[in-house]
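> example.struct
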């Protein structure tokens, strides 16, 4: 583990995770019950797209807030219709961390590669499960988050 990553891990404390945006789409020409009879491939994506640093002053103390915008997506693809997924669920979460000291961009980038996803992943898994319920389709199983 690099010194920059160790510094970020020691300094950053997760404050909150918020949903920033989302899209959910079930293709128009498909009824939820039809998904049971079709073999579907699950495809996914994930990663930090943007990092925003904010300097804060509370009384005599300075804080730095680091906002990581983490995007995750999953889609069900029918082998016969690969360019038109049957189901797509995408979401961007804002993971907010606070630090008592300003971190280097290298430290923050290193932290974003795996650790932000670790904190956001439970929110993403719940979002996919509840979205599937709202779509009246079988739950799409999102695996546990693995670092490395």
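> example.seq
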């Amino acid at each position: 583990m690099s010194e920059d990553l160790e510094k970020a891990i020691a300094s950053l404390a997760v404050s909150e995770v918020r949903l920033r945006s989302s899209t959910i789409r079930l293709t128009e020409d498909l009824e939820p019950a039809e998904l049971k009879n079709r073999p579907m491939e699950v495809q996914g994506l994930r990663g930090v797209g943007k990092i925003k640093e904010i300097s804060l002053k509370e009384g005599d103390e300075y804080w730095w807030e680091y906002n990581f915008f983490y995007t995750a997506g999953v889609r069900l693809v029918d082998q016969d219709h690969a360019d038109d997924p049957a189901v797509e669920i995408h979401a961007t979460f804002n993971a907010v961390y606070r630090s008592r000291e300003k971190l280097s961009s290298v430290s923050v980038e290193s932290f974003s590669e795996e650790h932000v996803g670790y904190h956001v992943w439970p929110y993403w898994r719940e979002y996919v499960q509840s979205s599937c319920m709202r779509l009246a389709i079988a739950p799409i199983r999102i695996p546990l988050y693995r670092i490395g």
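> remarks
The mean pLDDT is 92.
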